[in-house]
Every structure is written in C-alpha cells, then in structure tokens.
Amino acid sequence: MQNRIRFQILCFVLTISHFGSAQACKDLIEDSAVYKVSMIYEDVVQLMYGHEDVLSVQILGFSEFGQAIPLLKLENKDVQSTKKPILLVANLHAREFYSSKFLMKFTNQFLLSLKNERCLYKNASKYLEEYIFYIVPLANPDGLKIAQQDWKGIEGHRDEISKIKRIGPYSDWKANGKGIDLNNNFDDGNFHLKHGRLFEEKPASQGHKGSFPGEAIEAKLIQNLVDSIHPLITLSFHTKGDVLFWADRGTHHKFKGLDTKLNKKVATECGLIMARVSQKPKDYAAGLENYVRAKTGTIGVCVELSKPNNKEAQHPPSMFLELVWKKCKNLPFIYLDEFSRLYPEYADLFE
Ligand SMILES: [Zn+2]
Q1: From the CA of 261, how far away is ligand 1's center (Å)?
Q2: Which residues lie near ion ligand 1 (Cβ < 5 Å)?
Q3: Which helix (H) or strand (E) is 310 found in, with range?
C-alpha cells in the first residue's frame, strides 16, 4: 500500500516537473500565422522583460516612415574576456517574414535554454562565453507593413507608396517604403556596377538599387552597425531556395578556404545547397553579405530559408515549422561550432 502511495507521489512529481519543463521551454513566438510588425514588437518587449539579465534591447534607428528597428543584444556580462561579435539580420526583403520569425524563435529558444538546460539548445551558455550576439529581426518594417497591407502607423504615406511602381500584388513587395531594395543598396564598392536581373531605374516594389549606396535609411543603419561592432560572422536571412550565397569572386580569396569549410558544414547538416561563387558584381553587388566581406573582411552569408516554389510569394505561413524551423533551427550554432573549431587556424585573418 505504502509503495503504491509512493508511486503515486512519484508520478505526481514527475508530471509536475515534466509540465514545468514544457512550460519553461514554451515558445513565445507564434508558429503558423502571418507575422506582423506589431507582433514582432510585442514579442521583442516580452523577451526583454523575461530575460533582462542577458538581453538588452535598443532601437537601432527608425525606418523611412518612422517605424522602430529593434536591435537585440545578447551578452553574458559576467564573462570578462573579449567576446567575438556575431550579427544576425532578417527581413531586409519586405515580404520575407519567415526570416523574422526564424530569428525571433531562435532568440527565444536560445534565451529559454540559458535558463533551463532541458530546453532546445543544450549548450546554450557556452556560446555566451565566447560570443556576443547582435540580432536585427526586423530590418524593413515599412516594407513588411506594405507587403501585408497593414497600413496602421504608415497611413500618412499611402499616397507616396501608391505612386511607386508595383510589380505584382502588394504581397510581393520586396523593397523598403521608398521603393529601394535594401539588399542592393549597401556600399560594398561595387554599387555602380550593380544591374540585377530585375533592374528598375526608378523606385519600385523590387529591383531598384537606389541612386547612391546607403540612400535607404535602413541599409545605412545596418551598415553603421557593422562598422561599429565589426562582426566576425554576419548571417543575413532571406526566404527562398534553401540556398547559401556564401562567396563572391571579389572577396573569396581573402578567406583562404575558411568560408568554404564553414558553409560546407552548414549546408550538409541543414540540407541546403551552396550556390556557386558569385562571379559578376553586376549580379551580386551591394548586398549586406557583400558589404561585410568587402569592407570588413569577415564572413558574410545570405541564407535563403525554405525550398523554392517557383513563385514570388513565400510559402504559406502554416509551413514555417516544416520548411524553415525543422531544417535550420541549429544553423547559427553550427556556424559557430565550426568557426570556433577552425578559428585558431585562421585567427590572423581577423586581426
Ligand atoms: Zn530576399
């Protein structure tokens, strides 16, 4: 009889602790709906209040239409040694909210794992001993609002938005609020050569690089961030193709094979394709990844999450878990594990 009671108590305790653990690891980030700018702001605030010990949130700056661009910084302040800065950016392209959701979910799971080792990332705390993370989950809030026809807060700009050349429906919008493709507007030294496949002379919903590099406030803010923190790895998340754009002919030689090794590892483990080394500045120039490679001589990768679907539009929001999260949830840490392993051999590249 006593044994039976003991067993029942044990079951009860196990249930509680299991429930406790599930609760402790519970995701804040919605998995299957459209991810709106207001939801991202709310999630950022919730994370901030839940994890003040390691997470600080600043406003990197404001978009062309005055929307805040949050910058999340994850740091273990108790570790005194010099840490390597890592930059993760999402949503340079307006419609690609999978990328924002991916970074927010990654950040949330990372933070939960720091508090509870039964959560997703078992060695979460070791990354904060070596690295400091700068995360920009919403680089292009105006564009995301336009793509979702979510006019609240930008109503005053409806007129100017309607005058911008629109290629396809609003839901295909890729540019910022002024009709500049942010990932064609970085000052990598090749801006003047850029003339992509979808080239537009004038502001447009996609394909317009701007009149000069850094013309778009949002691109300039991220460029300034890169210049000030000098990240050793920059991952810029997009959402089409399950591809890594990891090298261009102008800078590939600088990395002495480190870029190849890192990206091979990630491509293999996450089931992604490595694009060929981009050959012509006309096609590849002026992206964030090109900027960091050219100007700071550090690793920059454009990560295209989710398989191709031969459409402009992203896959349905309900497929995020299956197409993005399941495949790539470990991706940032795979880069870091491999980078840490190879770093002693390549340290002189970054001095
Ligand atoms: Zn993109």
Answers
A1: 24
A2: 93, 238
A3: none
Tokens 């991916």 belong to residue? 102
Amino acid letter, residue 20? G
Q: Amino acid identity, residue 170?
A: Y
Pure H helices in the chain: 2-24, 37-50, 97-115, 124-130, 141-147, 158-163, 217-229, 258-270, 281-284, 288-291, 320, 326-328, 331-346
Give pTM, 2 decimals: 0.94
Residue-wise pLDDT for 29-62, tens only, equals 999 999 999 999 999 999 999 999 999 999 999 9
Question: What's the CA-to-centroid distance between 82 and ligand 1, angstroms?
Answer: 33
For ligand 1, the distance from its centroid to the CA atom of residue 118, given in whole angstroms, is 34
Domain boundaries, the chain: 37-350
Query: In which band, very low, low, confident or very high, does the pLDDT at 21 lie, cut at 50, 70 and 90?
Result: low
Output b/e per residue, 235-268; b: 16+ Cβ within 10 A: bbbbbbbbbbbbbbebbbeebeebbebbbebbbe
Question: In CATH, which superfamily holds the domain spanning 37-350?
Answer: Zn peptidases (3.40.630.10)
Helices (H), 70-150: 97-115, 124-130, 141-147
Given the structure tokens 């991952």, which residue do they identify?
Answer: 235
In the chain, the N- to C-terminal Cα span, in Å, equals 70
The residue behind tokens 């979460």 is: 124
Tell me the two tokens of residue 336: 């870091």
Q: Which amino acid is at 7?
A: F
